[in-house]
Amino acid sequence: MTSFALIEAAAERLAGHARRTPLLSSPFLDEIAGRPVFVKPECLQHTGSFKFRGAWNAVSALRPDGVIAFSSGNHAQGVALAARMHGIPAVIVMPADAPAIKIDNTRALGAEVVLYDRATEDRDAIGARLAAERGLTLIKPFDMAEVIAGQGTTGLEIAEQAAEAGVTEGEVLVPCGGGGLTAGIALALDARAPGLRVRTAEPEGFDDVARALAAGVVQRNARLSGSICDAIVTPAPGDLTWPVIRRLCGAGHVVSDAEALRAMALAHDRLKIVLEPGGAVALAAALFRPGSGPVIAVASGGNVDRAMMARALST
Amino acid sequence: MTSFALIEAAAERLAGHARRTPLLSSPFLDEIAGRPVFVKPECLQHTGSFKFRGAWNAVSALRPDGVIAFSSGNHAQGVALAARMHGIPAVIVMPADAPAIKIDNTRALGAEVVLYDRATEDRDAIGARLAAERGLTLIKPFDMAEVIAGQGTTGLEIAEQAAEAGVTEGEVLVPCGGGGLTAGIALALDARAPGLRVRTAEPEGFDDVARALAAGVVQRNARLSGSICDAIVTPAPGDLTWPVIRRLCGAGHVVSDAEALRAMALAHDRLKIVLEPGGAVALAAALFRPGSGPVIAVASGGNVDRAMMARALST
Hints:
2 copies of one chain form a homodimer.
Chain A: H1 4-14, H2 27-33, E1 37-41, H3 51-62, E2 67-70, H4 74-86, E3 90-95, H5 100-108, E4 112-116, H6 123-134, E5 137-138, H7 145-164, E6 170-175, H8 180-192, E7 196-203, H9 208-215, H10 241-248, E8 250-255, H11 257-271, H12 281-288, E9 295-299, H13 306-313
Parallel strand pairs in A: 1-9, 2-3, 2-5, 3-4, 6-7, 6-9, 7-8
């Protein structure tokens, strides 16, 4: 189980290695939302997403001789860089339909990439086999205490930066796939900024967590491909993340692909940051869903192909 | 004259109001440049460029009843927001051919915008007349001690952040129009990080400062329009900025529009930040000009139309 103490330990390990991303805002976004909007741009984190935090913490804490990971891409890059910075080998098992930039970047960061078919093959089985054969430690994308704790450092920073901005009550919207970032932030805020309530954001058709929060029990997604928000498409929340999310989070937001693209374009125009569709769903919910009081949207990643960004800018 | 003491005073005025932008990097950019590259993303500053720093400092220091400014756009937005945050009126004299987003944003920030023809009218005369008629204080875009001092706070941050990254010797490349940012950073580094040498970056055809540095005397640009790098097209360096630039800066870099666009695309891909062409010329020089040792490129602004960013992404 991930405790707040694990998040504090993660923050010590990340100091000087992960970036402390700023808290951004724009009067133009406040006007659209009708309330103060703040954005935590984890696209500016090493490797372009928050995933570096969890990967760095897990590798630092576990001190493995080598690591293996499976991921739609952002976790892959985070693990690859964290491994390289620790001087150990990394094998990354990736779906063959992941964006080309994510596959290329993972290889360029020194990792060995093993591709699999998302529709017909079981990535867990592939990962387990390779881990056993080569003596590698599996770094799970979300359902692992050290990974959740690393992502939770985002929440520690939000607590501090929100207080500096005079915000002690409000909503914190988090793009949610398997729930590692959501659970980590929720635990950090529960301890450090209890007036800030976490709510999840997911794409239409892949809203397992919103449905689970409404039903009170885990729900699964019917499909696992076909969303432009590939970074946050996972079968269901994890065994470690779901109990935290259920206990601490408010009702989940669901946004359309078109809304995610509009949020990307507005982040470009007003904040000068590059978001991928999955990284923009919380900002989309902050801008296009009614609400009152300050809202902090986590912009979780920016690993987007140029063509997808051009599509967002032409909407 | 702008002294280092004025920059230190500016830093105190800006604390808690301007953003402390991070220092970014990417192993992919290091590989392209063949040396360690760091980027100071002032596109993430309030209003999307470093200009907010100088505007805030001038308004805070001079405490005017109202302000007037003329600018190709970024200074306009900086002055407009600084005035609004101080509760005073702002009149902005802008060229009629400035990007639409800059005119719209300046108006949306509460300023009154007066347009003029860059080819046939004299903005200084228009500004002086309006200032006299309405009792407004002119906030010059670069040739004003308080403005240079405000921009110089960027250099204080670079000195600290470079030291944290272990960089005490190297080059700092700065997009240069009238030279306010360049002179401010050069003064700050001369005092706080004398191993970091400033070099200017300008677009082809508008390289007055590079030519002036080579000749030892002020040079002027033959044209004042026709560059995609509109933010840094000015007739010549200023009376206050040129002596500082001449004394402290190394030879100037000149880059093509195509190189600025490629730098914008790489900043999008690798740093997840949005740059305008004029804000990308220093990064272009860092990536595409030979050099050894660490290089820090100031990315001075990100106020770009969606169409121009789409153009950069399609190159």
